[in-house]
């Protein structure tokens, strides 16, 4: 088991190296003079030269790469131009907000998409099956930023059932004491149900927006994979052995069907992390997505670079977790790998 | 050559029969084709169809809800939303088509090379694809546009790059399973060059699965482009583009002026939905086995 | 006729499948009886409805199947009227089944020992603590080497023959009174085939368990079965004790089948093939006798009148308008 995890970890290294190289190249591909860019529009020639030396831009590209690696290793992602704050610190304080949103979106998508997909597969041709197929195609067509707006308009403006769709917590509540940075978890730790409820109320719309978007691929895959498994020989064996319907469906069919679903999660995370940025903008969610959008507006490049790198590393880690999960479910993986 | 033509002929006739079967059996696909045609017309002739100048502002009619004069209402500058939506079709389609075809050509070329030669070519190309896939794709697109500069060309480039791995993988797999097939061997013995074999004998096999991929990607490319402009990358105001229009309407929706964001957003949704339905329909036509 | 009621009796069973391309008339007026402890072979070409019949007996057909007529009774129980919960009690405990392609017939991601335990837990009152011991016993009974270690093996770690042994262990775990073996040796290599068949017949004899052997191989059936039922295109065309059937086949199809079966006495050159194919069972105008188009003894009635059933001797039944005749010995 541990050996398998280590092997997966080793397998992720080329990806991490690739990610680091690409982010490095992206900074160096800045149009015009990067030094002038980093120095800001009002800098003097000397200031630009000084920045150039400071950033190591007067050195050769491989040399610059080594410097870049050293900075990364010491946790230095540079400073934001507009706030002067170190990018790493800013990302660290904002990342929990983004993760909380992403994870809640994922959970919402899973708890609706997977049962629906299973239901559709066990009743092929029924109305629920047709509904699922429509939903699956419609779901991937949703521009998240638009569905978010629509939800906010309907739930806040028209129906008034949700709080003002701005931020993580209504202003009248203090943020719970930071333990994990996830408000839902922290408020539970603090046994503060009021805050928990308020945080959940703020979270539900953006999380639902994200969930709606990634529900579709999950549901589609669940349905297809369940259909495939249900018609396989070993399900017939299980039924011929008199195992109960639930046993056949869950222990035999569903566990096998999970394999392709887990594989799809990789794509789902890619979608989630990408749309996260859009949803954060719509709901003024103070995560790293909003941070990067502010930076983009002011042409502040260090935060953008730090953001891309962080997101890519988070994604690599999530994929690693998926691989490990796959290995836990499927005994065949450990042998072949 | 003659032999292969006579073998191919009934195949095409069968395909055509199958197309008719799917179209009549599945009215949804037929509807998707019709909608696609409609949007194509908007994209091609938008500027002539639009009732108003999409950039002309008239503050006397600012923020007016839908009416007989302005079917979809007007925005904060008094511009006609319907006209802006129609004219934006050209830009959004243009971005999607250019990006998807760029990744189609580059991706299938790289994939064919990787699948045909294997070895180092395969490993390097595979690594490129893996590295792109190691990023959340929209995030990578943001990074690329931010680095290369805010322009439509860069949106196209970024969208093309993030779609590249799909095309590389599909074409690599198709070519790889066939590179040692009998007819490839025969073509080689007949003195055909590698390039000729790839182009004439292997590449055509890649096309059917690619068509499905292209159609599904098209919707996704439009979503991507709109998403990028929504956060202020790429297309810049006052140019009309669906993503920007939603962004412009976002501030007003909370105060009740819903039409500014709703109509462009709904159009965007419908277009992407059309492409996805079309992709599903094409999959039914081209590969009846994987019907889901 | 035996005075004792048969263990399994299928009477005038008709079954259709509704598909996109029309209704498949898969089985029509099928009647079969199996006595306790008896081994019956069901023989026919692929597509003749043998497997569908066995799924129909266990009622594990897929949703597109539609039972049109008939009755199935097993040990006095009306299988067609039984509730799903009652059927689950019968499946695996009273009637067990083994399949072709044992590799895919086992759950690929569950330890084989656990799969046997699932059956034991469902049907017996074995204590949780004894389940593992019992499962290992089951594996030992089918002569799997080192059953303790194999208990935690996954199907992909075993050979095809070993997987089939596991299937047999799984099927016999609860001492069923009827075993349906559906092409149990298909997909195995020749030496393994013989070993598996020996194992099945030996275990059946030990437990005096009735067995239905479904196969396309008449020679295999003749070796192990007391009685043979010949099926063609969803019809039972003939059934007789094995020796009787080979001696005096009455149905032209059976005669052809015997003539096309290799045996030590027959020269390979003189083996006959059966002309034509099974009729398309989706047709709505199927002739009364579905063999008629391939038959050299066909007469005018074959396509019209109701298919007659003739009993030549006790236990030898034929459904044919123009059966082969033999002069009295």
Explain the overall architecture.
The complex is a heterotrimer of chains A (337), B (292) and C (329). Chain A has helices spanning 2-28, 34-39, 45-55, 61-73, 87-122, 127-140, 144-158, 183-189, 193-230, 233-240, 245-282, 288-297, 301-329, 331-336. Chain A is mostly helical. The longest helix of chain A has 38 residues, at 193-230. In chain B, helix 7 (182-189) packs across helix 8. Chain B has a single domain, classed as MetI-like fold (Orthogonal Bundle). Chain B has helices spanning 2-25, 27-49, 81-117, 119-133, 137-148, 152-178, 182-189, 194-230, 242-253, 259-286. With 292 residues, chain B is mostly helical. With 329 residues, chain C is of the alpha/beta class. Chain C contains 11 helices and 12 strands. Classes of the chains: A mainly alpha (337), B mainly alpha (292), C alpha/beta (329). At the A-B interface, helix 1, helix 6, helix 7, helix 9 and helix 11 of A face helix 4, helix 5, helix 8, helix 9 and helix 10 of B.
How do the helices and strands follow one another from N- to C-terminus of chain A?
A: HHHHHHHHHHHHHH
Query: What portion of residues of chain C is helical?
Result: 25-40%
Report the CATH C-level class of the domain at 95-283 and 310-336 in chain A. Answer: Mainly Alpha
Whole-Å distance between the termini of chain A?
Answer: 12 Å
Would you tell me the structural class of the helices and strands of chain A? Answer: mainly alpha
Largest sheet properties of chain C:
8 strands, mixed
SS content category of chain C: alpha/beta
Based on CA atoms alone, the radius of gyration of chain A comes out at 24 Å
| Largest interface, chains and sizes | A-B, 59 and 50 residues
Percent of residues in beta strands of chain A: under 5%
Query: What is the count of helical runs of chain A?
Result: 14
Supply the key terms.
heterotrimer, A: 337 residues, mainly alpha, MetI-like fold, 14 helices, globular, B: 292 residues, 10 helices, elongated
Break the fold down into its secondary structure elements and pairings.
The complex is a heterotrimer of chains A (337), B (292) and C (329).
Chain A: H1 2-28, H2 34-39, H3 45-55, H4 61-73, H5 87-122, H6 127-140, H7 144-158, H8 183-189, H9 193-230, H10 233-240, H11 245-282, H12 288-297, H13 301-329, H14 331-336
Chain B: H1 2-25, H2 27-49, H3 81-117, H4 119-133, H5 137-148, H6 152-178, H7 182-189, H8 194-230, H9 242-253, H10 259-286
Helix pairs in contact in B: 1-2, 1-10, 2-3, 2-10, 3-4, 3-6, 3-8, 4-6, 5-6, 6-8, 7-8, 8-9, 8-10, 9-10
Chain C: E1 8-19, E2 22-34, E3 39-43, H1 50-58, E4 65-74, E5 77-78, H2 84-90, E6 95-98, H3 102-105, H4 112-123, H5 131-141, H6 147-150, H7 160-172, E7 178-182, H8 190-207, E8 210-215, H9 218-224, E9 227-232, E10 235-241, H10 242-247, H11 252-259, E11 310-313, E12 316-318
Parallel strand pairs in C: 3-8, 3-9, 6-7, 7-8
Antiparallel strand pairs in C: 1-2, 1-4, 4-5, 9-10, 10-12, 11-12
């Amino acid at each position: 088991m541990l050996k398998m995890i280590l092997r997966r970890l080793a397998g992720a290294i080329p990806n991490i190296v690739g990610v680091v190289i690409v982010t490095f190249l992206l900074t160096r591909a800045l149009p015009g003079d990067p030094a002038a860019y980093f120095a800001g529009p009002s800098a003097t020639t000397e200031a630009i030269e000084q920045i150039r030396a400071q950033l190591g831009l007067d050195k050769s590209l491989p040399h610059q790469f080594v410097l870049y690696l050293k900075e990364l290793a010491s946790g230095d992602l540079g400073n934001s131009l507009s706030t002067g704050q170190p990018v790493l610190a800013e990302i660290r304080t904002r990342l929990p907000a983004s993760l909380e949103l992403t994870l809640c979106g994922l959970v919402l998508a899973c708890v609706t998409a997977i049962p629906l997909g299973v239901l559709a597969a066990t009743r092929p041709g029924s109305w629920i099956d047709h509904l699922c197929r429509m939903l699956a195609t419609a779901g991937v067509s949703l521009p998240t930023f638009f569905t978010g707006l629509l939800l906010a308009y309907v739930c806040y403006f028209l129906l008034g059932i949700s709080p003002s769709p701005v931020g993580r917590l209504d202003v009248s509540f203090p943020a719970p004491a930071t333990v994990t940075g996830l408000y839902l978890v922290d408020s539970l730790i603090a046994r503060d149900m009021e805050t928990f409820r308020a945080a959940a109320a703020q979270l539900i719309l953006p999380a639902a927006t994200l969930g709606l978007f990634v529900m579709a691929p999950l549901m589609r895959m669940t349905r297809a994979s369940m259909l495939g498994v249900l018609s396989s020989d070993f399900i017939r064996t299980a039924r011929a052995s008199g195992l109960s319907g639930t046993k056949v469906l869950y222990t035999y069919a569903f566990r096998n069907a999970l394999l392709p679903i887990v594989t799809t999660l990789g794509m789902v995370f890619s979608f989630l992390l990408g749309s996260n940025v859009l949803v954060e903008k719509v709901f003024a969610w103070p995560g790293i997505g909003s941070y990067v959008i502010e930076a983009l507006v002011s042409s502040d490049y260090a935060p953008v670079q730090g953001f891309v790198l962080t997101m890519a590393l988070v994604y690599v880690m999530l994929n690693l977790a998926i691989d490990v999960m796959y290995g836990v479910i499927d005994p065949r993986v450990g042998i072949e790998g | 050559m003659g032999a292969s033509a006579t073998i191919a002929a009934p195949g095409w006739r069968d395909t055509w029969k199958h197309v008719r079967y799917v179209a009549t059996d599945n009215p949804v696909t037929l509807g998707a084709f019709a909608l696609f045609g409609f949007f194509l017309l908007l994209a091609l002739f938008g500027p002539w169809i639009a009732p108003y100048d999409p950039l002309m502002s008239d503050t006397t009619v600012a923020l007016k809800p839908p009416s007989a004069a302005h079917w979809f209402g007007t925005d904060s500058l008094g511009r006609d939303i319907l006209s802006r939506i129609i004219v934006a079709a050209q830009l959004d389609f243009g971005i999607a088509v250019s990006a998807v075809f760029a990744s189609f050509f580059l991706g299938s070329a790289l994939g064919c090379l990787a699948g045909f030669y294997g070895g180092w070519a395969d490993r390097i190309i595979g690594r490129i694809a893996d590295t792109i896939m190691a990023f959340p794709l929209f995030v990578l697109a943001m990074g690329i546009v931010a680095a290369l500069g805010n322009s439509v060309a860069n949106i196209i480039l970024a969208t093309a790059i993030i779609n590249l791995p799909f095309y590389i993988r599909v074409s690599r797999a198709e070519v790889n399973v066939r590179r040692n097939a009998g007819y490839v061997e025969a073509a080689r013995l007949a003195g055909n060059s590698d390039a000729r074999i790839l182009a004439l004998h292997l590449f055509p096999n890649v096309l059917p699965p690619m068509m499905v991929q292209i159609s599904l990607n098209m919707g996704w490319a439009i979503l991507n482009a709109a998403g990028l402009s929504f956060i202020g990358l790429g297309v810049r105001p006052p140019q009309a583009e669906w993503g920007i229009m939603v962004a412009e309407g976002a501030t007003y929706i909370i105060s009740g002026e819903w039409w500014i964001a709703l109509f462009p957003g709904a159009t965007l949704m419908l277009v992407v939905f059309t492409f996805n339905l079309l992709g599903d329909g094409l999959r039914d036509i081209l590969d009846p086995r994987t019907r889901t | 006729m035996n005075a004792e009621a048969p263990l399994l009796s299928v009477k005038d069973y008709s079954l259709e499948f509704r598909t996109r391309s029309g209704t498949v008339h898969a089985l029509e007026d099928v009647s079969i009886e199996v006595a306790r402890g008896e081994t019956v072979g069901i023989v026919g070409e692929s597509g003749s409805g043998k497997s569908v019949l066995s799924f129909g007996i266990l009622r594990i057909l897929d949703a597109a199947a539609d039972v049109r007529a008939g009755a199935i009774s097993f040990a006095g129980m009306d299988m067609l009227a039984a509730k799903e919960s009652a059927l689950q009690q019968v499946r695996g405990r009273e009637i067990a089944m083994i399949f072709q392609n044992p590799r895919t017939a086992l759950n690929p991601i569950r330890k084989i020992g656990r799969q046997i335990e699932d059956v034991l837990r469902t049907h017996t009152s074995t204590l949780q603590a004894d389940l593992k011991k019992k499962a290992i016993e089951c594996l030992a009974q089918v002569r799997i080497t080192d059953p303790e270690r194999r208990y935690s093996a996954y199907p992909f770690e075993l050979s095809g023959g070993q997987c089939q042994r596991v299937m047999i262990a799984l099927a016999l775990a609860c001492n069923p009174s009827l075993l349906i073996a559906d092409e149990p040796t298909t997909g195995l290599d020749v030496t393994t085939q013989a070993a598996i068949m020996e194992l099945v017949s030996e275990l059946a004899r030990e437990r005096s368990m009735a067995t239905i052997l479904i196969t396309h191989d008449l020679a295999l059936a003749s070796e192990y079965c007391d009685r043979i039922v010949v099926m063609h295109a969803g019809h039972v065309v003939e059934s007789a004790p094995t020796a009787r059937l080979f001696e005096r086949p009455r149905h032209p199809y059976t005669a052809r089948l015997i003539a096309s079966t290799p045996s030590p006495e027959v020269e390979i050159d003189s083996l006959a093939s059966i002309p034509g194919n099974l009729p398309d069972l989706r047709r709505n105008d199927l002739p009364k006798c579905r063999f008629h188009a391939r038959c050299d003894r066909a007469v005018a009635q074959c396509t019209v009148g109701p298919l007659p059933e003739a009993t030549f001797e006790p236990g030898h039944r034929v459904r044919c308008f123009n059966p082969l005749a033999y002069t009295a010995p």
